[in-house]
Amino acid sequence: RVSSDTMRVTACLVVLLWGLVVAYDSQKEKDEEDEISKLTEDFELLEEPMPVLLLPGFASSRLRAYSSTKCPGNMLRFDLNDDVWLDVAMVLGAKWCFLHCMSLNPVNQSDPTHPRCRIRPDQGLDAISQLNPGVVTGPLSVVWKRLIDLLLNMGFIPEKTLLVAPYDFRLAPMQLESRDHYFTKLRQKIENAVESDNRNFVKRHPGMKNHVVSRGLMVIGHSMGNNIFRYFEKWIKYSMGVTAGKEWLATYINTFIAVGAPILGAQFSLQAAVSGLTFGLPITEYDARKMGLGYSSYGMVLPADPSHEDKRHSLLNNENRKAPIPVSSIVFPNGTEKAYNPSEGVWGLDIWKDIQEFDPWATYIQSYIINLYQSDPVINFEDSWRRPDVQNVYCVYGVNRKTPVSFKFIYPENGWENDWDTKEVIYEDHNRVYSDSGEEIFKYDPTRTNSGDGTVSYFSLSWCHTWMEERINITRIPQKDMYQQDEILLMRDTTIQDYVSTEIRTDQEYDTFFEERHLEPNGEIRSTAVWELDDIDHRAVIMEPVFLEQMSHQIHVQNNVVGKMEAQIEKMINTMISTISIFPKRGAAVVPTTDTECFWDYLHVKCAFPHVCGYYYKFGDYHLGMSCRLHKNHGSSIVLTEEDHKEVPCECMGGICYNGLCRYKSACKDSFLAPGLDAHWGRCTFAINGPDLDMLGHDTDTGAPPTSVMSATNASGKDEL
Length: 721
What we know:
Layout: H1 4-40, E1 52-55, E2 63-65, E3 69-70, E4 77-78, E5 83-85, H2 88-93, H3 95-102, E6 119-121, H4 126-129, H5 145-153, E7 162-164, H6 173-180, H7 182-204, E8 217-222, H8 224-240, H9 242-252, E9 253-259, H10 268-274, H11 285-291, H12 311-316, E10 328-331, E11 337-340, H13 342-347, H14 350-355, H15 362-374, E12 392-399, E13 403-410, E14 421-429, E15 432-435, E16 440-443, H16 458-461, E17 472-478, E18 489-494, H17 496-500, E19 510-519, E20 525-534, H18 545-576, E21 600-601, E22 606-607, E23 613-615, E24 628-630, H19 642-646, E25 661-663, E26 681-683, E27 693-695, E28 698-699, E29 712-713, E30 719-720
Parallel strand pairs: 1-7, 1-8, 8-9, 9-12, 10-13, 12-20
Antiparallel strand pairs: 2-5, 2-6, 3-4, 10-11, 13-14, 14-15, 15-16, 17-18, 17-19, 19-20, 21-22, 23-24, 25-26, 27-28, 29-30
Helix pairs in contact: 1-5, 1-18, 8-9
């Protein structure tokens, strides 16, 4: 029996606690808004930015009820359009009903029956921004909210220039297309956005109506969303043919940013398939495994060994060509223990065949691996992911977090059928590999080794280093507001071999940027970058300030350069229409006129436009780009280094310089390449100026061709530049 005084005190404490939680959540939300404002305050609002598409990861799309379901033995129910994933109240109040609705038939991945429950992915920004909105539970389920807020603050418009593509994260790619037509709809969504962007461009610049070159869109994928993009890229080529598919990708997708990509899989998928993964919910591992038994999507992220050897990847992983330790081991009821590697054990089905004697559920896993992955006509999932076939690729992930790399499972005595326990977990953490019991397995040189992001191993994440060419540029900067010049590592035109042989400081957290740009045989410029962010968690990477800072800067550089050149290019074309035959893509550069327009060029490891911008650090600068400022504002004259003098001098094609801009014959010391550009462009100093001409090639005073214009006659007798 509880006294009334005790009840009143308890009630007061509950109200006080609720008030504190509300106050904390409100303050946290305000702090996040202030942080987003800080990231965008240095930039102007973007007008008509390049469209961006967001692809969420596993369990990061809201699922809604597409049918009404009454929960047996409970007053609660799911009504049409109710949230199912993630409704925390239903997890607590009607657990069986929640688990039932979230499950799929393990034989064919159909919706559960008795009672029937049909759920499908929600649509729109809200479907990935917060999975469970609310004062208390909202912050616990925030996934993409901060990045979306940043993009909206930058001027992106929902469903016009800011798109999302939620999907049913329970299904294998083949089933996403057969049941939901997901990839067909995704292709249409991308085409609509890019074609709308092209129409808006023509409205702003009518003179270029017949000369529009699509700038495409930017795709940002997180975690398993990157595997979805990988499948989509292959599906485009499969459904359209390889040549037409490549042309489609070149037209509609300009940039792909892979955040936390499990390129060689992730060990958590084994834990989910064998013992169960609770996702942090108040359910048992057995319940979680039973719920996820029909989740054929696990196959997308099962651990895999590289299908081909790459020395760079081996160097970054202590000369390990394959996973350094078995990804799993099983202790059977008779006491014997067996270890499994990715190739034979997981994809070769050994582990599933061995445990099915004690675990009939293992047959379901074998079935979907064989039928939905090994038999998929679109892609060979055991062939390691090669560089996506788009112009610009960024691979971004956290490093040096405690990350599981192997699980040991045991069938407990007197346990339920199909019930495995996790006996031991082996982790990598910085340069150490050790078990949860404290036993040390490996210890590497701390200056040569990274660990994963808390979910995906470094062995898997770092495979995207193989997407770059051999010669790269590396920038490594401290992860803090203020740092000294000697704390920055700059390596230009180097290799991974040189990098791992260089003495690297490990006394603090760093962000390391690996970048390269090269010319393809077909004349296309391709750039690839890998960003390794110290101590950033897998799920939180898209919310971290360091990622948001770099993202906002890159997007502004891309869009501002494009936007400022559009008017100049249009004017050029209007004047040169009678003679020019090849029109540049949007994306050439103009010389900065303010400090804000200067930025850091990671490719050349210095401030872009070195003839007008230089590195001038000021207190409060929190990334290299902010320290790039105009020479003239800081009393400095331009001094070319010996290395600069060695570079190729700039020479305009055809000798033409118009309005201070020309297309260079080749890469030279002051040339610039922007996303979407297929040539080298920059400033020139010939005598021709736009206002002094009424027609290109004729002086307004004398009518004589200027000396800087050179023409040639081709075989057809037509003049060409």
